[in-house]
Amino acid sequence: MNPQITTSNCSQKPSSTREETIKRVGQQEYQKCTEKEKKKEYYDLKHSPETFEEGVEVLMENTAQKQRKVGKLTDKFLGPYTVNHHVGKGLYELKNNPSHMET
Fold this sequence. Notes:
The chain is α+β, with helices and mostly antiparallel strands. It folds into two domains: about 15-45; about 55-100, no CATH class. Helix content is about 30%, strand content about 20%. A hairpin with a 2-residue loop joins strand 2 (about 75-90) and strand 3 (about 90-95).
């Protein structure tokens, strides 16, 4: 029995020339890149960051409620607050809105 041909690779085609192999591997890499780009575009459409303009009223998530540091009946969101200005990527300076303050 020839040592190069075994039962595990009998169904495979004989190896092609070096240039054809490089060309085939290049095409596979190109297909991987295009698939990756398509997935990234689809993800970016669904997960675009939310931005707020100055002067808009927003609610802030109550992180203490998520960590169960408070009871189950506390509010999930705090506010409303007014956006004072944009600080950085996803960061905003908020100011209290006295007209909506609870007593």
